[in-house]
Amino acid sequence: MRLAKYLAHAGVASRRAAEEIIAAGRVSVAGAVVRDPACDVGEDATVALDGRPLGGREPRVAYAVHKPLGVVSTARDSHGRPTVVELVPDAGVRLYPVGRLDADSSGLIVLTNDGALAQRLTHPSFEVPRTYRVSLGGPPLGARALRSLREGVTLEDGRTAPAQARRLGPHELELRLREGRNRQVRRMCAALGHPVGALQRTAFGPLRLGRLRPGASRRLNPAELQGLREL
Fold first, then answer.
1. Can you tell me whether residue 182 is helix, strand or coil?
2. Residues 151-171: pLDDT tens digits?
């Protein structure tokens, strides 16, 4: 395993930040300072940071979180806004959000320290579906708008992939996407003359928001983790 990856798995920092820590000469392997992030180390290697031995690989965990409005989907924020990781203060490991929800959107987001799982959930090649409940402005939602959503909407960065769209009411929609462009739901609906008033993610792959209240979280059980890894 690369040394930078070892540090990331030990919960020291993200892999990129770990590379900077190693380059600064703060990490030793078997008592010798190593400055090469690509240095190969074994799982049972004696690795120390600033002279303090590391405990090795953290257990891989993930949490389902109900992100409230106004909370940002980052590990830290330079403007001092509340972040989703602050909603799981007692995790005991360094967590990172999987994907994003805008500050003005709410709903289900996954936090994990498992980089491979995060890659599987977010990489476009896996097409993991995300489901949203959307409140709309403009005229009542009609058959033409639904057909456009299901066939694909032309945006400034290209035509979207077909979505699953279901009318819940004159101004309410359930939308299921398999791609994750920036503010995609809002841009798709606005392009059809229906500006989004409220947006909530209700599902991420097989995970459901369910009755999880805003600001609350729950640790995923082994069966749920395995289901996500097999997507």
1. coil
2. 999 999 999 999 999 999 999
E strand or H helix at 186, and its extent?
helix 184-191
Q: Known catalytic residue: 102? A: yes
Residue range of the domain that includes 77: 62-124+207-229
Number of domains in the chain: 3
Residues 192 and 214 in one domain: no
If you ran DSSP here, which 8-state letter would residue 93 be given?
S
DSSP assignment letter at 31: T
Burial of 30 (0-12, 13-18, 19+ CB in 10 A): exposed
Handedness of CA 206, 208, 214, 219 (dihedral sign): negative
How far is 229 from 231, CA to CA, in rounded Å?
6
117 lies in the same domain as 215: yes
DSSP 34: -
Query: What global pTM score does this model have?
Result: 0.78
Q: Report the 10 Å Cβ neighbour count for 137.
A: 12
Active-site hit among 102, 104, 114, 157 = 102
